[in-house]
Each structure stands twice: as structure tokens, then as C-alpha cells.
């Protein structure tokens, strides 16, 4: 099934700036785990019941990856490891996302190969958190974990719901904290919609109490932000609180005051999508970005991201001026990295 694919996102793979700047960026990645593309596809109920025998439906209304044409077949483990080695030639940081990567049967072996065989220095995995207890070796391999959580209110009355899965996710977060050795290696990523603004505020406080990194962005509907949120006073108060806590440094929050302001209040930014290229399970690489559905090449066939992007530019032209409509953390971060790098670095280090 397409929904179980694990995708690979090299972090800043094509950065050609002086080493001192690369070192600084590596620091940014360590201090603020990359959570771009963390609007995940959470799988059909029937498939879960038949194959995994679970009773949890985590399908998100705001998912950006529902269209079948963006999916690719999975490669066997050894070929996937070969793909990871190809990516490693151009970056030492990678994010494994999906779909839900923990649904892949050999995900433990793949994360171990990425970390210990391919020698990735930064290895993040984005998950809904429900299956971590079944795949504990993941937690011994990754350098950081990003867990998607949109509310703290459990609701056991509907077994096929995300609220019903909450107790299991919280239990698995305790396991992750123990095996990772520090709550700061866990990011709680939440997506803000009209219905859960109050819950997100509770999540913000809870992350501070637990020591987890808090990360937030608004739901994207058909790749567009919900501008109606800006008319909601409760949303504005929440954004103010997130920014102020980050500015004062009272708890760990992903991003900087300026990137959070741009992300959550839909400010202007220029996207540089090739800075965070996405490699699909069969090695396909999109150019310039996944939403445009244009595959420029295959990493196993073409050999390098640099070569693929050069080919994509030749075929499809320069990156189009999209006016910054995809309000995802990585997209906003790329704007500040290119246009105001040193101010961005100072904000992260503070």
C-alpha cells in the first residue's frame, strides 16, 4: 500500500557555502530538529485492521500527500540502504518521514544502517508515535524523534480515532525519552486548526513541563493556509505566547521568533525548495518541489542530487515565484537561510 512509504529528506544537501557556515547550520539542525513536511498521511482504517490489527485511524484532513500519483514503490532493504548511501555522499543529515515510516517492516534495520553503516550524523524520524513500542531499535539508532500530536484530550469512545490512540502515544513517548536519554531529543509537532487551538495551548505548556521541544504550524488545505485563523483572537493570543516563550528562552521551541512569526501569521517569504530535497522510496527526486509533481530524475540512476537538479532546471526551468504559499517550517527556514543567514544563526544560538 502506498501509505506505508518511508521518504527520505536530506537536510541542506546542496549547501556550498564556506565551512564555517555549514558548521553553523549543523548547529541549527541539532538545536531545532527539522520538521518540514511533517503533515503526514495516516492510513486507511480497513488496511490497519487487516494488516496491523490495530484499531486506530489517524487519517488527517489536512494531509498534503493523498494523491496517488506522488507515491512510489518501495525497494528491498539492501537497495534502500544503497539509496541511503547515495544520499550520504551529499549530506550528513537526513529526515525519514512518510506516510508512517514505522509501518515498514524493516524500518529498524534501515535506521540502524543509516546511522551506523552510512554514518549519518543527524538522523531524524517523523512518526505518529503509535508503534514505537513495537520497533524500539529505532530509538537506539535515531539522533532525534519528531512525534505528531494535535491534542492532549483522550477520547476512548471512538476506537477509530486519533484521540483514542493518545494513551498509547504518551506511553511510547515515555519509552522514547528513556531510550533516547533526553527529552530534548524529542520534538512534539502539532498542526493548528480552528478546533484545536485550546488543545495546542495545553500542548505548549505540557511540552515545557516534560522538556520536549515544541513545534507548530497551521494546517494546509490543498497546499494553502487557512487565512481565517488570523481573524481568530484565540489563535493570535496563542501565536503571541509561542513567540514570547521562544524569545525569552523559557522552553525549547522549534524555530526563531521571526521564523515562527512568518510561519504562523502567514508573512511573506521566498521558498528555496531544493535546499531540502525529498527522495522517494524508489529514488525519485522532485524538482523543484513535491507539490508541483515534476520528477527530475532518480538518485539510483542519475547518481547525485546536484545532477538531478541541473537536469530539472534544464527541463522545467528556474524555480517559479510561488509567492510562498506552502507555509511549512522548512520552506520558511530556507528563506531566512538564504536572505538573512547570520541573523538566523544568531537567533537560533540564543
Task: Give me the CATH fold name.
Answer: TIM Barrel
Q: How many domains, in number, for the residues?
A: 1
Quaternary state reads: single chain
Proper CATH architecture = Alpha-Beta Barrel
Order of helices and strands: EHHHEHEHEHEHEEEHHEEHHHH
User: Widest sheet: strand order?
Assistant: 1-2-3-4-5-6
Average pLDDT rating: 83
How far apart are the first and last residues' alpha carbons, in Å? 44 Å
Described by the principal axes of the CA atoms, the overall outline is: globular
Count the E strands.
10
Computed over alpha carbons, the radius of gyration is 19 Å
Q: Report the portion of residues in β strands.
A: 5-15%
- Name the helicity range: 40-55%
Structural category is alpha/beta
Unreliable residue runs: 13-19, 27-59, 66-70
The main sheet comes to:
6 strands, mixed
CATH class: Alpha Beta
Number of helices, counting only DSSP H or I runs of 4 residues or more: 13
Explain what you see.
With 350 residues, the protein is of the alpha/beta class. The protein has one domain (2-268): TIM Barrel (Alpha-Beta Barrel). The chain has 13 helices and ten strands. It has helices spanning 19-31, 45-52, 77-88, 107-117, 137-141, 162-180, 197-210, 233-248, 257-264, 299-302, 305-316, 329-339, 341-349, and strands at 7-10, 93-97, 122-127, 144-148, 186-192, 213-218, 220-221, 224-225, 284-286, 295-298. Strand 4 (144-148), helix 6 (162-180) and strand 5 form a beta-alpha-beta unit. The radius of gyration is 19 Å and the shape is globular. 46% of the residues are buried.
Feature tags:
two-stranded antiparallel sheet; globular; 10 strands; alpha/beta; TIM Barrel; 13 helices; 350 residues; 41% helix
